[in-house]
Amino acid sequence: MTLLIISPDYASHLLPLATLGTAWKEAGHRVAVATGPATASIVDDFGFERIHLQLGRGSNPGVIRAEDQPTGEDDALRGFFEATRHGLVATLAFQASARKNDLMWEPVATARAVQAVIDEVQPDHIIVDHLAFSARLALKAHGVAYTDVVLGHPSALPVAGEVYGYPPTWPARFSPDPVELAELRELCDSVSASFTLEWNTALAELNPGAVPSANAFAEHGDLLLLNYPHELHEPARTELLPPHEFLGSAVRSEPADAEVQQWLDSSDAPFVYVSFGSFLSVRADVLARVATALETVGIRAAIAIGSADRTELGELPESWLVREFLPQVTLLSQAAAAVTHGGNNSVTEAMTHGVPLLVLPFSTDQFAGAAAIERVGFGLSLDPNAATIDAIRAAVEQILSLPDDSARALAQLGESLRATPGRSRAFSAVSSFAPRVTAG
Q1: Which of 122, 209, 377, 419 is most buried (CB neighbours < 10 A)?
Q2: Which CDD domains match (predicted)?
């Protein structure tokens, strides 16, 4: 059996998808990954076959910097970073305006490249990142069955009454201006209509007989997998989803890191893990406030600074572990708590190890994810631009001392996610799925 994984050239997307693929490899099956060159080393580390496929202008090998991006993408990235400094509505509006270039890059040419990959690989099953719209457009146009993996919060696939890019819920401490929200909703509706028109135009060129979409953002694969714990998802929204399977989490194995292991072995004192992911680590000003707050709490910290300017963090305790990149899964397995931007990998990996979270969301589905963490009692959320050092300190102290019922529920969730990992759930779901014959 051959499994084909289609992923954008972004480490944060490829890592969970490749982790799912390890179940096929361990079962003795062939695994091929179609992605770009920036993440080639990740494919090699997993021991998979790589086929070149460029799904967008940008890339992210693990830590992203604007100066490393191609012309046009560099300015877009700087624009996004600047928008995050102006608040959540400004950030979401910037992302909505840039959506066509972000999510459906050169759709017809890319779709034809995807079909060429399928013709070359001849896969039995195909797993595609939900946000790889040009790839999914190709599969729909050519009548190829595939498994669609939503790697973010499930709201990345809008259901009745929702529009892509507009959070269906907000964390408790967020109170956006109603007028600004109305304008954001109008913008997201307009972008959705424009995006759908572009999808249908490309679809008609690829397959003139194809049925046009009513909402391209609501399109999904024949089999839908959600890389998210169902325990965090609101039951009322779950009922609105198309047939699906919650994977829980796709926690990867990490190679041994001697420096990190030495740091872990050096003390039994609790520590807080801090990371804003590969994009938002650029917000050194917020990381600096978090670091100062943790010093006032008097707890050790392991901080992945990513692309942040190290000098902006000031002088940090020598007992802390501070590097550009840290093995997140390894550290979360022993952390007492974590401070995060609320990305899907960070949230699901923390839940797998029963780690309470302070979420400082900046963009996209991070707001819905933060609201879910608060709703189930597994952490708190603060506005990263407005949160003071004192507010961060108080929130960290609060999540370090969860009420007994919340602590038990979080521990039970972690045990469940570790007992049946996402890759096992994915393998079972996909293996029982009978794909259609592809139309070359």
Answers
A1: 377
A2: GT1_Gtf-like (cd03784)
